[in-house]
Amino acid sequence: MDFSARYVALGDSFTEGVGDDDAARPNGVRGWADLTAAELARSNEGFGYANLAIRGRKLRQIMAEQVDAAVELKPTLVTLYAGANDILRPKVDIDSLVEEYDAGIAKLSATGATVVLFTGFDSRNSKVFATTRGRTAIYNELVREVAERHGALLVDYWRFGEYNDPRMWAEDRMHMSTAGHVNMAKRVLAVLDQDDAIEVPALASQPEPGRAEALRANARWVREFAGPWVVRRVRRRSSGDGLRPKYATLTRPLSLPVIP
After folding, report:
1. What 3-state class would DSSP assign to 77?
2. CB crowding 150-170: b at 16 or more within 10 Å, else e
3. CB atoms within 10 A of CB 79
4. Would you give the end-to-end CA distance of the chain in angstroms?
5. Is residue 53 within 8 Å of residue 245, measured between CB atoms?
6. In angstroms, how far is CA 233 from the centroid of its own chain?
7. Residue pLDDT, tens place only, 142-182
8. Other CB atoms within 10 A of residue 40 CB
């Protein structure tokens, strides 16, 4: 099919859709990029969508594996989120990373596509990830400079206060929940100046847990999520090992019901 509009989504688990489970879709997830593509396609029969993002990918991997592949698809719209998996490492040279990021964005911008970039989330309320807040703030300032230099649009995740609500996060506390992904789709469409028919699902009541309940929940989180994540780091493995992109070539986005 000769698509008149071509959206290519690049990145890691954030863009792949981890946290918004859907067994009927490739890799078992949906996510904000799928939702955004479906919404943009509602009024455009010639709209094509590719999603090259793979969970666990670090910034240099995304630049090496996904940017040239995206250029070959002749995009009219590109979204790219990268860097979170680097910032979580014990040591990271943010200036060096952003030099490669800048070169990749230059390639994407040269296609004439609308390019949409993201800042990282402000983790100040997270007992586990708050230690990375300073790194993320530095990274964000450099991303803003890259966006300005290349005329890219910016989704400023750092400033989205609604994500301080734990119900916007999946059980692993690392990825957005279904509600978080749906809300992010609305945020991206707003940056694109696009109307949408998306409604964020109502958030279930979540009473404050007692001390004993909180301790049990934290222990389960360490056992089921944090522990395996650390083991993968030690073994130099990734949750994305062996996975292929959800949509490596342009396709018509799946019809939704937008409301989960």
Report:
1. strand
2. bebbbbebbebeebeeeebbb
3. 28
4. 29
5. yes
6. 20
7. 999 999 999 999 999 999 999 999 899 988 868 999 999 99
8. 20
What angle do the packed helices 133-150 and 94-110 form, to 10 degrees?
A: 30
Question: How far apart (Å, rounded) are the C-alpha atoms in residues 137 and 185?
Answer: 23
DSSP letter string, 155-175: E-GGG-GGGGSGGGB-TTSSS
CB contact at 8 A, 181 and 16: no
Beta bridge partners of 251: 49
Distance of alpha carbon 33 from alpha carbon 206, whole angstroms: 27
176 vs 126: CA distance, rounded Å = 14
* Gap between the Cα atoms of 172 and 176, Å rounded: 9
**Beta pairing class for 47-51 and 247-251:** antiparallel
Rg of the Cα atoms in the chain: 18
Cβ neighbourhood burial of 131 (10 Å; 0-12, 13-18, 19+): exposed
Residue 62 CA to residue 67 CA, distance in Å, equals 7
DSSP, res 132: G
DSSP class of residue 255 equals: P
Is the pTM value of this prediction over 0.70? yes
**What does the block give as tokens for 104?**
């990749």
